[in-house]
Amino acid sequence: MIYTKDISKSYNGVQVLKIDELEIPKGQSFGLVGNNGAGKTTYFSLLLDLINPSTGTITNNSVVVSQSEDWKPFTSAFIDETFLIGYLTPEEYFYFIGDLRGQNKADVDRLTAKFEDFFNGEIIGKKKYLRDLSKGNQKKAGIVAALIGNPDVIILDEPFANLDPTTQIRLKQILKDLAEKQGVTVLVSSHDLMHVTDVCERIVVLEKGEVVKDLETNPTTLKELEAHFAKSAVTVSEEEE
Amino acid sequence: MIKHFLSLERKQYFRSSYWQKNIALNILLVFFALYMIGIFVFFGVFMYKILTKLFPEQDPFIVANTFIFYWIIAELFIRFFFQKLPVMSAKPLLTLPVKRSSIVNFILGKSALSFFNFLPLFLTVPFSVSLLNNGYSASVVLTWLATMVLITFIANFLNFILEAFSAELDIPFLPLLIVGGGLFALNYFGIISFSEIVSQGILAITENPVYILVLIALLIGLYFYNFKLLKDKLYLDASLQSKVKEVNASDLSWTNRFGDIAPFMQLDLKLIWRNKRTKSMAFLMVIGLLYGLFFYPQPIYRDMTFMFAFIGIFSTGFFLINFGQFIPAWDSGYYKMLMSQNIKYEQYLRSKWILMTMSVVVMFVLGIPYVYFGYKILIAHAAAAVYNIGVNTHVIMWGGSFNRKKIDLDKKAAFNYQGTGAVQWLIGIPLMLVPMAIFGLLDWLIGFEVAVAVLVLAGGLGILLHKPLMKGITQKYLDSKYKMIAAFGKDS
């Protein structure tokens, strides 16, 4: 579904991302972990053609994203709150996204109705603008908006951050269902190793812009990841001494 | 402590991406400042002579003082629109071990160093020198100068109080307009002569310098009132965060007849109606519409045919220019999202084009009563409207593809005039001067009919070529897509 070849991104000669080859098959739930500055958001931005790659290409369902816009109809994303339109209410925002994705109001209503308990009664019908919602509620609205229009690929950057524990658990269930039952390719990034091992079948670890681990999730994955990140913490403290 | 604040200020100023990207604009503003200084110095040096010429029977010093009332009103207006108290920059300091009162004192103290407070000196100092040369006693002149400086600072702090109270309103400049206009009218129609009162007050001070204490007390009072206002506001839930408002939803289903661009049109209309910044712009359209009334009632202008085109372009294109020059920065807050959505850029731009075109038509229709001043004016306005639709809409959208400055819609309107005010008018110049030059030249060389015909022809050509033009413009936007995303992601 998504094929990355020789991609790299540099800013003023400093390389922030370099992936030789990465293939994500259809229907896989794919997790990206790494410390700050590892290149997670850069990779997602390249995937959405929000920044221009220095070299290489990303192909989404055989469309080269930096050359054609045909990947847009089946791809949706929520990167950060700048994806929201602050002066709309959540409903209006959902309808707007629905309009862009060829869904009428009834379709959108049907979809959002399914997320009633996810919203916890704080989003729909509150007569509030998105800019006036709390960070967590903004995130919920953004994530659900990314599900409108039955996309084949969903990209979520740090979806668990800022959410309350109940919502985190519900979100994990939603993401699992999408990949397992509906065959949607789900890409998430996270700093929370536990959440990402719960949700994703496959986890890739980025470090300084490069892939250092590529794991199929199994019961020992969490331990392995924790060991990996603990190790880099140890090396850092050793270097400091 | 002050040292830290000052170094923060300096860094904020020189490291803002706005400064680095707009060197040309900054140079222009410096020239503008120099120009203003030049004018002030000129009047300061020659005012004594001018006043003796104009009012030979009266004492020029006394005549000058009668103007001070108008000066104060004008100064308040100018300050209201261009001078802001930079409260927002205090937010990161709140959690640090810095006393609130020193933050407030710093913000207020800094405002005293504003250009607006030095500008009057360029007039008052040379005037004082010429007073001394003409035999006025030094004590009178120096007291007068001190009084003027105090008045400047009083205006400085009074302005912030006015701003604080009007910032919450939908049309922030309305109270000032009513109060300032009211005082002016009372004075103008001779009901209460404020200019006389102010003048008498200043003369009383120069005769008996002890009265200057009244002004000093007033200044101290205003400073502490500002101090109190600002100190109460330096909490996250007060001024540093915007108020939550109930949604006012309106039915926009009439836009559905525009087919595939309807979602964008609805978005644009909501954008205009729900953000303070854009809302004040919409209200300013009234001023644009009434602009002709400044000129047409005077017979001199009615004979200047070339002015018709200028006023026509300005009044029918007021919205076009104000809205158009910030395309696509209006959407800068969520530009990344739009770019990752399944949208056709051409639809996005066409929605803006239709909105601007509709505004031109509406403004023209509302301006039809100008026919009272002569049918030629109406014809010229119609030609100007066609030119606006055919040429200016495309030009301004093309110009928008060079737009690299983020607009923060959530910010209060009152904090937002700064930096845009002067620019706004500068960008408007080519859009208005070119048709005015074409029209004026042809009118002078050949005749009114030809001038009108050429404007209409140019506009008509633009409308005919709308499709290919839009294609070119769209391509221009697509070419600068990454640059725009990067620029809109940055805080200015």
TrEMBL record, chain A:
<protein>
    <submittedName>
        <fullName>ABC-2 type transport system ATP-binding protein</fullName>
    </submittedName>
</protein>
<keyword id="KW-0067">ATP-binding</keyword>
<dbReference type="InterPro" id="IPR017871">
    <property type="entry name" value="ABC_transporter-like_CS"/>
</dbReference>
<dbReference type="InterPro" id="IPR003593">
    <property type="entry name" value="AAA+_ATPase"/>
</dbReference>
<dbReference type="InterPro" id="IPR003439">
    <property type="entry name" value="ABC_transporter-like_ATP-bd"/>
</dbReference>
<dbReference type="Pfam" id="PF00005">
    <property type="entry name" value="ABC_tran"/>
</dbReference>
<dbReference type="InterPro" id="IPR027417">
    <property type="entry name" value="P-loop_NTPase"/>
</dbReference>
<dbReference type="GO" id="GO:0016887">
    <property type="term" value="F:ATP hydrolysis activity"/>
</dbReference>
<keyword id="KW-0813">Transport</keyword>
<dbReference type="InterPro" id="IPR051782">
    <property type="entry name" value="ABC_Transporter_VariousFunc"/>
</dbReference>
<dbReference type="GO" id="GO:0005524">
    <property type="term" value="F:ATP binding"/>
</dbReference>
<keyword id="KW-0547">Nucleotide-binding</keyword>
<feature type="domain" description="ABC transporter">
    <location>
        <begin position="2"/>
        <end position="233"/>
    </location>
</feature>
TrEMBL record, chain B:
<feature type="transmembrane region" description="Helical">
    <location>
        <begin position="103"/>
        <end position="129"/>
    </location>
</feature>
<feature type="transmembrane region" description="Helical">
    <location>
        <begin position="419"/>
        <end position="438"/>
    </location>
</feature>
<feature type="transmembrane region" description="Helical">
    <location>
        <begin position="280"/>
        <end position="300"/>
    </location>
</feature>
<feature type="transmembrane region" description="Helical">
    <location>
        <begin position="23"/>
        <end position="48"/>
    </location>
</feature>
<feature type="transmembrane region" description="Helical">
    <location>
        <begin position="210"/>
        <end position="227"/>
    </location>
</feature>
<feature type="transmembrane region" description="Helical">
    <location>
        <begin position="174"/>
        <end position="198"/>
    </location>
</feature>
<dbReference type="InterPro" id="IPR043742">
    <property type="entry name" value="DUF5687"/>
</dbReference>
<feature type="transmembrane region" description="Helical">
    <location>
        <begin position="141"/>
        <end position="162"/>
    </location>
</feature>
<feature type="transmembrane region" description="Helical">
    <location>
        <begin position="351"/>
        <end position="372"/>
    </location>
</feature>
<keyword id="KW-1133">Transmembrane helix</keyword>
<feature type="transmembrane region" description="Helical">
    <location>
        <begin position="306"/>
        <end position="330"/>
    </location>
</feature>
<feature type="transmembrane region" description="Helical">
    <location>
        <begin position="378"/>
        <end position="398"/>
    </location>
</feature>
<dbReference type="Pfam" id="PF18940">
    <property type="entry name" value="DUF5687"/>
</dbReference>
<keyword id="KW-0812">Transmembrane</keyword>
<feature type="transmembrane region" description="Helical">
    <location>
        <begin position="60"/>
        <end position="82"/>
    </location>
</feature>
<keyword id="KW-0472">Membrane</keyword>
<protein>
    <recommendedName>
        <fullName>ABC-2 type transport system permease protein</fullName>
    </recommendedName>
</protein>
<feature type="transmembrane region" description="Helical">
    <location>
        <begin position="444"/>
        <end position="465"/>
    </location>
</feature>
